[in-house]
Amino acid sequence: MRYFLILALSVFTCLLHGENNNSQSRIMPDSIIIKSLEWDALYDIPIKCYNIEEINHTVTCINNQDDINRIFCHIQKMCRVKESPIDVRCKIYFYYKGKLLNTICIDNNVSLYNGIYYKTNPQLVRILIDLTSKSNTIINGHGKKCLFPNGYDSLFTYIQQQRHIITKGCDIKRNGRVFIVCDIDREGNTIKAKVTNKDNAIPQIVLKRLETLFINDVKWLPSKERATKEKIILPPFILEKSLVDINGLIE
Can you give the pTM of this predicted structure? Predict the structure, then answer.
């Protein structure tokens, strides 16, 4: 009888959590940002909700509603536990039309959601690992790439990875310093990009392709504190010279 009572109370706690989620989040998110660390890595300091962004981390954007539903469903199944030490490996931001709804911080054992501690759902962890396994990018439901910006190094690395497209059919005979200015909106979209090269080392067609890449591929972290349109000036970037044949293949 005592065992049955304990089991019933445990189930009741989980159900209450699901009800609380529904009452606090009546609007289903239409996008999610996942900031994640290596799940099995050891760090010099405890990672908390407030300092995870200070650690080298991966940012993944999810706009696919099926993936969002899966994540949300497993969160609702988690059971409440007493307050416990938490060493965060993942922080999820839930958005609707660019507005932040709420966040959840997760480690391998405990999750912190709306100030309440819950037992981490192992299935949720497996889903998050799968979704964030593609380095700093993931293809979302619209087929557009979301990057990032954990410092500018990952962005500049991405540009170098795309150089076979950017420089196709062009012969860049010397290194060129590139200056990039982006206009972004509150949802993190790059709505305009201006790329210049003052020493004329980079052909104009390459600069235009870079502008197109930023508009089509680069998505910044949404922020409700951002102005309707905000300008971002990136550090100068060196586009290295390369030998390119007439078919655009780097030798």
Answer: 0.49
